[in-house]
Write a structure and sequence with these properties.
Layout (H helix, E strand, L loop, with lengths): L12 H24 L6 H6 L6 H11 L3 H14 L6 H23 L6 H6 L2 H34 L3 H50 L2 H10 L18 H17 L2 H7 L5 H33 L4 H4 L8 H10 L5 H33 L8 H29 L3 H24 L5 H24 L4 H4 L3 E3 L12 E3 L30 H19 L25 H10 L17 H14 L1
Antiparallel strand pairs: 1-2
Membrane topology: Multi-pass membrane protein
Protein name: Sodium-coupled monocarboxylate transporter 1
GO molecular function: organic acid:sodium symporter activity
Length: 608
């Protein structure tokens, strides 16, 4: 009987057929784009889709890029255990979209960059660009390996799919359509995967509604279980999720992910006009709202079904990440092919993230490390290098997935580090975009101080996890489980951090319940503020930047903030305005040549 615990069915033949079919279609899109675009095999075509993409497919790709298998599996489990507070991230998505579209998109689009980190050299110095790129490559390779491993581990234990076979197959499929098709293949494949992910959520909610007697019953059960108390206005920064931590901290965290992450920047600058680029972020916002709403409601559906028999407390699953796959096999096993659709949804999320990461890693490696050194490479050589690097980074990510299998609970630690690094980097960009007095010394020192602080609080919080008082887990019971022997009790499953770096010690230092208990959502905000404040102070102490040697192209401008109806006017001003010399020439950035920006502007104006 559904919802009463015990073992569940595994994959049927039809499930394997559906799963394999969807994955093969994804690879087929890459091959189709490869053969279709053979005559346009330039580096710009490979890395930026020839800058001819339109808003809607790019928007769906932006949404799919960070809606990984971890999101598909983890968000419903979050909603099941902690309630619907995660839905408040919808406000953060709106703020993030506005900041990214109105501040960052015009800047990157105007400069015509391929690597987001080119800006750091133009504004500060080449060493800062190299440091920023290196941080991105390390975090993205590790993050991508873990994105491959996490859903594979959970689904392997629930469905019986071979873990290592799935790991290698996932990486190989991504390598194929990244290598042969480039960014255009990645974007169109993401569109397909986004549809599959949403279909997986809808299937679970629809079946749950039938079993429970309607969506109203699910909503009532969630309310009785305390899962609908989402708006907690407590200003305490130590509480894991409150309205303020999600709206304020979450907005900065997602801005760091969307505004300066190469995987995302590469997408919106692939649009054929600035209007399409901005629109893609606003349409992406709607996509994020739909995704998080369906994911949270899937978690509430899971609670309605398991309100009397928690599979985690009952020992049916070992980790929270296995709850949602367990639910799928419990309620959908009678429908051949539907569990296969769900697994394909989870892996579609993984494939989109992995393919995005591989393509972005290739872009920053070529633009930031190879082309500045080997300037005489032919177009054909660069194209072969792009494909070779796609294979290389795909292999690295598969290797990192293997390393992740040895890390155990460090799995989520890498995801936290991903956020910790993005905060100081965002602070560095904002420092350069808004404060003309900041120089390269201030930028470098500010970023280092911000990074040290975020890593300190983040790693400390994993060694000494926050108490249940701060994480607020909701009550669960095993009273209705059929196979529970001698158990009939209600429990609050304590939230132990899935990021524990070491066995939880008996001794807790004074900082454990204060500094180390800071909500993870605030890590990026801490990094941004620390980087900006310390960067400004150091810049002032070291003499600042000379106002008469600044390139206005490198700063936020008033007409950047005007949306779609003024796009044509903005394009005309871009074409007629001649950029001035680079900011802080000489000691601050001696290697810069004005022709670098001019050539990018000429290239971009030709496209427009």
């Amino acid at each position: 009987m559904v919802g009463t615990g015990g073992p569940v069915a595994t994959f049927s033949v039809w499930d394997y057929v559906v799963f394999a079919g969807i994955i093969l279609v994804a690879a087929g899109v890459g091959l189709f784009q490869a053969f279709r675009g053979r005559k346009e095999a330039s580096s710009e075509e490979f890395l930026l889709g020839g800058r001819q993409m339109t808003a809607v497919p790019v928007a769906m790709s932006l949404t799919a890029s960070f809606m990984s298998g971890i999101t598909v599996i983890g968000t419903p489990a979050e909603s099941y255990r902690f309630g619907s507070a995660f839905w408040i991230f919808g406000f953060a998505y709106a703020i993030m979209s506005a900041i990214s579209a109105e501040l960052f998109v015009p800047l990157f689009y105007r400069l015509g960059v391929t690597s987001a980190y080119e800006y750091l050299e133009l504004r500060f110095s080449r060493p800062i660009r190299i440091i920023g790129t290196s941080m991105y490559i390390v975090q993205t390779a590790l993050y991508t390996g873990l994105v491959i491993y996490a859903p594979a581990l959970a689904l392997n234990q629930i469905t019986g799919l071979d873990l290592w076979g799935v790991l290698v197959a996932t990486g190989v499929v991504c390598i194929i359509y990244c290598t042969l098709g480039g960014l255009k293949a990645v974007i169109w494949t993401d569109v397909l995967q986004m549809v599959v992910m949403l279909a997986g959520f809808v299937a679970v909610i629809a079946r749950g509604a039938v079993l429970q007697g309607g969506l109203t019953k699910i909503w009532e059960d969630a309310g009785e279980g305390g899962r609908l108390q989402a708006f907690d206005f407590d200003p305490d920064p130590l509480k894991r999720h409150t309205f303020w931590s999600i709206v304020v901290g979450g907005s900065i965290m997602w801005t760091a992910i969307y505004a300066i992450n190469q995987s995302q920047v590469q997408r919106y600058i692939s649009c054929k006009t600035l209007g399409h680029a901005k629109m893609s972020l606003y349409v992406n916002m709607v996509g994020l709202w739909i995704t998080v709403t369906l994911a949270v409601f899937s978690g509430l559906t899971m609670y309605s079904i398991y309100k009397n028999c928690d599979p985690l407390s009952n020992g049916d699953v070992a980790t929270p990440d296995q709850l949602f796959p367990y639910l799928v096999m419990d309620i959908l096993a009678d429908f051949p092919g539907i569990p296969g659709l769900f697994v394909a949804a989870a892996y579609s999320g993984t494939l989109s993230t992995v393919s995005s990461s591989i393509n972005a890693l290739v872009a920053v490696t070529v633009e930031d490390f190879i082309l500045p050194v080997y300037k005489d490479l032919t177009q054909k050589q660069v194209s072969w290098m792009n494909m070779g690097l796609s294979v290389f980074f795909g292999g690295v990510c598969i290797g990192m997935a293997g390393v992740a299998s040895l890390m155990g609970s460090v799995l989520q630690a890498a995801l936290s580090i991903f956020g910790m690094i993005s905060g100081p980097l965002l602070g560095l960009y904002l420092l350069g975009m808004f404060f003309r007095t900041s120089n390269s010394i201030g930028g470098l020192v500010g970023m280092i101080i911000g990074l040290v602080l975020t890593l300190w609080v983040g790693i400390g919080g994993q060694i000494y996890p926050p108490t249940a008082e701060k994480t607020n887990p909701l009550p669960l019971t095993t009273a209705g489980c059929n196979n529970t022997i001698g158990q009939n009790y209600t429990t609050i499953t304590p939230w132990t951090s899935p990021v524990t770096l070491a066995p939880e010690p008996d001794y807790r230092p004074p900082l454990a319940d204060t500094w180390y208990s800071l909500s993870y959502v605030y890590f990026s905000l801490l990094g941004v503020l620390t980087t900006i404040v310390s960067g400004l102070l150091v810049s002032v102490i070291t003499g600042g930047c000379k106002q008469d040697k600044m390139n206005s192209e490198l700063f936020v401008r008033k007409n950047d903030l005007i949306c779609f109806s003024w796009c044509n006017k903005s394009k005309e001003s871009d074409i007629t305005e001649k950029p001035s010399a680079n900011i802080c020439m000489g000691a601050d950035n001696p290697g810069f040549k004005e022709d670098d920006v001019m050539s990018k502007d000429v290239e971009k104006n030709t496209r427009l």
